[in-house]
Amino acid sequence: MNRLLALLLVFVACHAPAAEPVRVMVLGTFHFANPGLDLANAQVDDVLQPRRQAELQALAEGLARFRPTVVAVERDADAAPDRAVKSYADYLAGQGRDDRNEIVQVGFRLARLAGLQRVVGIDTHGDFPFEALQAWAQRNGRAADLQKEIEDIQARVKRMEQQQKTHTIGQVLRDMNQPATIRDDNGFYMRVLGYGAGSQQPGAA
């Protein structure tokens, strides 16, 4: 599946009085152990380095001040009882802590700090039919527009790669989660909705 550079970790705090709305924090992050499935794949530092591990611990401790009562991550757990991600139980038992995946390094780490006994999976299976989008753009005089979109995404990824040289992981994520950055990232999906006509709607797909 082709995807953009994004993962969501969702933290829910239900400790407020019942009359108040539930508070939700959504953290967007890059792939720490990039699977190579994105339109633009970032080269990232090894997060198991002692310096990066210290940064991740500081990040989790900062996020823990939100006092989450639920941590949800980008992993399919539809078939699991209570949607619980099984590997989190292994993590609590001391296994898999050297997994570079951001779900483990941020999501599981935070859940453990918060004293939670489960992490919820909220991913779903789906396709990202980018080839069909490219073909439609080529046939309808929009290839240059789509190429510009790709180049903009690649430029943002390169900027993030450069930030790693001088920024902590927490600082990189803070930048990624600024409203303007989120608007830029989501803007791609909004704009490709216009790639289609009649019964052919690859942008919407």
Would you kindly provide a brief summary of this structure?
By secondary structure, this protein is α+β, with helices and mostly antiparallel strands. It has seven helices and four strands, in the order ββαβααβαααα.
3D structure, described in words:
- The chain has helices spanning 50-64, 86-92, 102-113, 130-139, 143-163, 169-176, 179-192, and strands at 7-13, 23-29, 70-73, 120-121.
- The chain has 205 residues and is of the alpha+beta class.
- It is globular.
Overview features:
205 residues, alpha+beta, 4 strands, globular, disordered N terminus
Topology:
Layout: E1 7-13, E2 23-29, H1 50-64, E3 70-73, H2 86-92, H3 102-113, E4 120-121, H4 130-139, H5 143-163, H6 169-176, H7 179-192
Parallel strand pairs: 3-4
Antiparallel strand pairs: 1-2, 1-3
Helix pairs in contact: 1-3, 4-5
How do the SSEs run, as a string of H and E? EEHEHHEHHHH
The number of strands is: 4
**Any idea what the radius of gyration is?**
19 Å
Give a quick account of the main beta sheet: strands, pairing sense, barrel closure: 4 strands, mixed
Count of discrete alpha- or pi-helical segments spanning 4 or more residues: 7
Give the strand content: 5-15%
> What is the end-to-end distance?
13 Å
Query: Which regions contain 5 or more consecutive residues with pLDDT less than 50?
Result: 1-6
Proportion in helices: 40-55%
Q: Could you say which overall geometry the principal axes of the C-alpha atoms support?
A: globular
Structural class: alpha+beta
Q: Write out the strand line-up for the largest beta sheet, numbering strands in chain order.
A: 2-1-3-4
- The pLDDT mean sits at 88
